[in-house]
C-alpha cells in the first residue's frame, strides 16, 4: 500500500510504494545522472577513476555513487575504485555492510567473548562439581 512521503531531494510529496526513495521528477533526473556517470566510466581511461574524480567530471554526488554501488548498479569488479562507506568506520568497501578490517575485528572480539563465556561456564561447573563432591561424603 502506498504511503505519502516527502521527497528527500526536493521536499515534494509523492506516493512511496517501496520502489523509489525519491519523487518521480527527482528519480528521472537521478537516472539521467546515472547514465552520464555510466558513460563516463565506460571509457577505458576512466575505468579506474576515483569517486572524487567522477564527482568532479559528472556533477553526480558522492551519495548517489554510493547508493548505485550499494544497489549493484555500478559494480566495483568493473570499476575498482568504487565502493560505499563501511557502516562502522566509513572506509570504502565493495561488499557487505562492514569493511574487511572491521569484519576481522568483530570476529576477533566475538571469538574472545565466546572463549570468556566458556571459561566462566567451566569455572561455574567446577565450583558446582566441588560442592556436589563435598555433599556426597
UniProtKB/TrEMBL annotation:
Superkingdom field: Bacteria
Mind telling me what this protein is named?
A: Flagellar operon protein TIGR03826
